[in-house]
Design brief:
The protein has about 350 residues and is of the alpha+beta class. About 45% of the residues lie in helices and about 15% in strands. The chain contains eleven helices and ten strands. Strand 2 and strand 3 form a beta hairpin.
């Protein structure tokens, strides 16, 4: 079957090899080599249960591809390869949707930030992406997953889960709920600023895990996994990158003493990211950047909490308290951020001043 799909993109080519690739949890990915060609490719089956409008995703990719090619690329993105009849996607007889992109050679991913240069390079790469997209009109880029990072939507989901208490878990997590409710007002201010137009909507990546970058040696060379690119704010990318890369423990670590906010990683990423985006920042954006890691950690924390209250219907779990363990890690990370808040503000200000000088 895979060979038949390949023929839709390369009707005259012969497959040399095609094998599963990567460790993504949403789309199914294969690495493709063709006889007589040095260039290799990535073939993906798009999960339309998650990405319900794959055509829109393809159109976003093509807009980015055209825009970046016209403006020069410090960092690569993969090229979308059209089908033989010129379409960006192929839908097979069963209704499955397929995409072909170029493979970025001689590159590798990093799963965990272990050294300062990794955080610095990640900051530069994701900051470059934001700056490169800053001249695009966010209104032309729909959200790939509606309200994905919208705090009020996630709070609404949590409130609904609390009200329904479907599986009777509420009494066991009252203190956890109280922890997040205490911080709801402060973080909701960020969304208010966005709705008032004081913090601008931009074209952002929306999924800035370190493994969505490709490296050669000690340099980040490509931004990948563009399916979530769309409207958002810079805080989404900056904050989520730090939520994942500056956590000293696993996302479901049971020993909360191991969970800390890594200030070395924070400092390096901040220097790299703000060094890129400073020329495009508004005054309100610079003022509240310190809240971005806390905001994104809060959002994923209440998503884990709501899913636990609902009976673990969204996230895959390995044991009964898996989601609440994940939630508690996010809560501990928030506490660590709060302990470092003044230092975070100073580091952000220093990074902005360093760029401005």
């Amino acid at each position: 079957m895979l060979h038949d799909i390949v023929k839709q993109f390369f009707p005259d080519a012969t497959v040399a090899s095609i094998e599963p690739y990567g460790n993504g949890h949403i789309n199914t990915t294969y690495k493709l080599a063709l006889e007589g060609r040095h260039q290799q490719y990535i073939l993906q089956h798009i999960n339309t249960q998650v990405f319900r409008d794959p055509q829109s995703i393809a159109e976003t990719h093509l807009k980015l591809q055209e825009h970046l090619a016209a403006n020069g690329q410090m960092i690569e993105i993969a090229d979308l390869i059209p089908t033989a009849d010129g379409h960006p996607l192929h839908t097979d007889k069963e209704g499955a949707v397929w995409r072909m992109t170029s493979f970025i050679t001689d590159s590798h991913t990093i799963e965990v930030v272990e050294k300062g240069w990794q955080a610095l390079e990640a900051g530069k790469a994701f900051g470059w992406f934001a700056k490169a997209c800053s001249s695009l009109d966010a209104a032309d880029f729909p959200e790939a997953i509606k309200d994905f990072h919208r705090l009020s939507f996630r709070i609404g989901q949590l409130n609904e889960a609390i009200a329904h208490n479907k599986v009777g878990r509420y009494d066991g997590v009252k203190d956890v709920i109280a922890f997040f409710k205490e911080r709801e007002g402060q973080l909701s201010q960020v969304e208010a600023f966005v709705d008032q137009g004081q913090i601008p909507l931009r074209v952002v990546h929306n999924d800035t895990k370190i493994n969505n970058l490709l490296f050669r040696g000690e340099k980040a060379v490509a931004v990948i996994d563009l399916d979530t690119v769309g409207q958002g704010i810079l805080y989404f990318d900056y904050g989520d990158a730090l939520r994942t890369s500056a956590n000293t423990a696993e996302e479901d670590e049971k020993d909360l003493d191991k969970v800390q906010f890594n200030m070395e990683a924070f400092t390096a990423f901040t220097k790299g990211y703000l060094g890129m985006v400073r020329p495009i920042l508004s005054e309100h954006e610079t003022t509240y950047f310190y809240l971005a890691p806390k905001l994104m950690t809060y959002i994923i924390g209440i998503r884990f909490l709501a899913d636990y209250l609902n009976g673990d219907v969204y996230y895959k779990t390995k044991y009964i308290r898996h989601n609440i363990d994940r939630c508690l890690v996010q809560a501990k990370l928030i506490e660590s951020m709060e302990q470092h808040e003044e230092a975070m503000k100073e580091i952000i200000q220093d990074a902005l001043m360093e760029v401005a000088e």
